[in-house]
Amino acid sequence: MKTVITYGTFDLFHIGHLNLLRRAKELGDYLIVAVSTDRFNWEEKHKKCEISDTDRMAIVEAIKYVDKVIPEDSWDQKIKDVQKYDVDVFVMGDDWKGKFDFLKDYCEVVYLPRTEGISSTQLKEDMKNK
């Protein structure tokens, strides 16, 4: 069995998120998604989410491509997660290209192209300007 993992906030879930999860699942048999906690988003990333972490985790868990959801609570946990869950492939959007290459010592690292024309940041800006 080939295990894939990806990480994200998944705030204001949209088609770009769905495309990422679908393409990540196509790279293996079992997809783990780490959803950033509210604390991690606020204290480490300086981002305020519109949807709570428990709700975001429930939304992601309901997606048919996702086999397991875990909380992401620190930048450092990625190596531990890859080892704990015996991950074969680590996946992120290509806007992070090169930032997680240190994981190549533990698994394959794949950066997938983002869905053009959509992002949570853009959605938040659009809502603010209405």
Short structural summary:
With about 130 residues, the protein is α/β, with parallel strands linked by helices. About 35% of the residues lie in helices and about 20% in strands. The model has no long low-confidence stretch (mean pLDDT about 90).
List keywords for this structure.
alpha/beta; 22% strand; 5 helices
Structure description:
The longest helix has 11 residues, at 15-25. β1 (3-8), α1 and β2 form a beta-alpha-beta unit. With 130 residues, this protein is an alpha/beta fold. Helices cover 33% and strands 22% of the residues. The chain has a five-stranded parallel sheet.
Helix content: 25-40%
Count of helical regions: 5
Q: What's the count of strands?
A: 5
The averaged pLDDT comes out at 92
Overall shape: globular
Strand order of the largest sheet: 3-2-1-4-5
- What gyration radius follows from the Cα positions, in whole Å? 14 Å
Instruction: List low-pLDDT spans.
Output: none
Percentage of β-strand residues: 15-25%
Order of helices and strands: EHEHHEHEEH
**Sheet/helix structural class:** alpha/beta
Q: N-to-C terminal Cα separation, in Å?
A: 47 Å
Q: Main sheet? A: 5 strands, parallel
